[in-house]
Amino acid sequence: MSLFKARNWWSTVLGEKEEFDQGCLCLGDVDNTGNGQDKIIVGSFMGYLRIFNPHPVKTGDGAQAEDLLLEVHLRDPILQLEVGKFVSGTEMLHLAVLHSRKLCVYSVSGTLGNVEHGNQYQIKLMYEHNLQRTACNMTYGSFGGVKGRDLICIQSMDGMLMVFEQESYAFGRFLPGSLLPGPLAYSSRTDSFITVSSCRQVESYKYQVLAFATDADKRQETEQQKLGSGKRLTVDWTLNIGEQALDICIVSFNQSASSVFVLGERNFFCLKDNGQIRFMKKLDCSPSCFLPYCSVSEGTINTLIGNHNNMLHIYQDVTLKWATQLPHIPVAVRVGCVHDLKGVIVTLSDDGHLQCSYLGTDPSLFQAPKVESRELHYDELDIELKELQRIIKDVNKSQGIWPMTEREDDLKVSAMVSPNFDSVSQATDVAVGTDLVPSVTVKVTLQNRLALQKAKLSVYVQPPLVLTCDQFTFEFMDRNPDGIPRVIQCKFRLPLKLICLPGQPSKTASHKLTIDTNKSPVSLLSLFPGFAHQSEDDQVNVMGFRFLGGSRVTLLASKTSQRYRIQSEQFEDLWLITNELIIRLQEYFEKQGIKDFACSFSGSVPLQEYFELIDHHFELRINGEKLEELLSERAVQFRAIQRRLLTRFKDKTPAPLQHLDTLLDGTYKQVIALADAVEENQDNLFQSFTKLRSATHLVILLIGLWQKLSPDQVAILEAAFLPLQQDTQELGWEETVDAAISHLLKTCLSKSSKEQALSLSSQLNIPKDTSRLKKHIALLCDRLAKGGRLCLSTDAVAPQTMVMPGGCTTIPESDLEERSIEQDSTEPFTNHKHLIAETPMPDISPLQGVSE
């Protein structure tokens, strides 16, 4: 047990599932006994008001029934409690309760009991103020130097200060530039209010300036405050602290000086009356509450600071004097005199743990046993250490953090796609052109071996496919003893008919690909059942596909050779049918028991068509930046014209508008037109990115077939070419892919150690054009053609000069190098139409198939 734990003097738990905050705790002699004993007053967001007077029989006792003097339900949430002289005509202490829309002042009184139940306490409502605005917090004091009574100032959620002179409302003022309310405190020495604005500045406002400023029945603009009656509200002093403040406290232990303490998110500050920093302290932990109090040393101030590590630190100025551990995270801390015990620390947590504690240590009765000394054998220890290191290394290589069986058996995820479409389509867009959009149901099953908690299921499909629901959370399903997040994946294939319909085959097409195999051609009817009518000879050599929206793809199988041709008018449409063909061929031959089936691609990689899609996507990105910049300029112009017109309309002497209204109308139309253009460009950019993704999948597939890459190498290509699931203006596809390919060229595909020493830029910015990216893609294909292999291990970083025959082009790092390699690097990878010229296939009827 730690010596530095807070000594529990008295504690209790308030209610069930109630919430509390820093304003919900208050100490004071609220029943006016005059004996100097403080009562603990607690309010909750559930509206319960409780008053305690602890008197435990022995240290550490829990709450007894007689400790609770009063408990009443006020129905409205209690935001803050204060004790002060809030009733006119008397200097007795009363209790002020701040609700979200109401301020109530109560008197608390006790009646001596004649029976064993003891004294009885009750509260009486003295007065209340219904607030027109939602309250945030309040402060009180002798505003303006009044004697014998306290005034109340309430800050609303929209930054208005409302001052109440006890039973009457005095005035309300808006703080200039207020966006979000901050903590509020009153300094009696300077007669000013101190708060922290949303600009992260400590601001001080004199009470006299607030009292004589323009009345704030409703929020007014700066120009109206200049022209209206009264004075403009000005700030006395400001100090930029650079962070949001949690609380403010004013400490004044003598008349000579006072200090303003501000608790920030990472620091706490001590300021002078004029806003100058007296000292500041950077905190090691995230604070939750604080309380400055009087120090025994002359000229110093002690501060209690609670943090989210269940610790309470005591500082003397900036020096840490004591640290004590609490059983909960405090959101409010107070110091008072309870049951003749002075200096009791009262803490309250957000879930209602109320504790009275004191500082100190208890003697530790534990005595460590003596350890038998023995002679050390360093040789044996060295052998044992090496053996343990070998065991750890083997375990990390084979199993990872957990054993594989445990990881696989804890939770299993399986997905089953319904063989039939939904009878009523669940698609958000019912139709695309003249085609109805179908929907299919996917059943995901989760099987768990252990009691699990907070399992989150996320489902992702590639655009333009959409889901009716993509996030599911199971509260009581997952268990992870080490607290480390674990991810389990399950992939499933959707039916081709979801986005593709049978179509009429086409003889001619702009884009064609030929896939070679090592087995006899298979009837397309057995590969794609449902996409063609069965013929008499049960052999279908040509098949047409039509995507939703109108795009057509034709698939032809050769009768004599072992080739398949895919052709379409759009380059990006080739990928889906090509990928489906390869997958279905592999599944077909696996069912036949043939294991040596392989596909290959012997033509040139169609980089030219791929580069055209890259240029189109990049052009839309540049166009989007220009449109957004132009829209921003027009919006600034629109607001400037609005301010001019508002000034003219508020002027007491009418003046001509000088066609400002016409200019406002024209600018408004331009803003609307530019906004429509931005939306249209964003839609076009989304469609272009979807096409680019499809074309990228096709290029990766062809490179893998061309160079017979392993699945791991194909995965590296996919990670490099498809790093983003969504394209944005801040981080786009071009700069991300260029950085990834440059890294591959610099490491595993490098030609020499000189290339490995080249440093890549650490920032990803949108490039000026796509020429560098296209040259890097061509250079990547060139190095793969010359024997380079993709690998992420450190061994692959070594130069591969003995593997790649011939001279290889280095990564261009200057304009001269780029011009020198431009011709050499792109020569072998031109338009894929050269493939058609090299391996001619006769034009034949689609119904006859391909014969060579």
Automatic annotation (TrEMBL):
Assigned GO CC terms: BBSome; membrane
GO biological process: cilium assembly
Domain PTHB1 hairpin: 605-707
Domain PTHB1 GAE: 437-479
Domain annotation PTHB1 platform: ranges: 495-602
PTHB1 N-terminal domain mapped to chain residues: 1-363
Domain of life: Eukaryota
Transmembrane region(s): none
Domain PTHB1 C-terminal helix bundle stretches: 709-784
InterPro entries to which the protein is assigned, alphabetical: PHTB1_GAE_dom, PHTB1_N_dom, PTHB1, PTHB1_CtH_dom, PTHB1_hp_dom, PTHB1_pf_dom
Pfam family, one: PTHB1_hp
Protein name: Bardet-Biedl syndrome 9
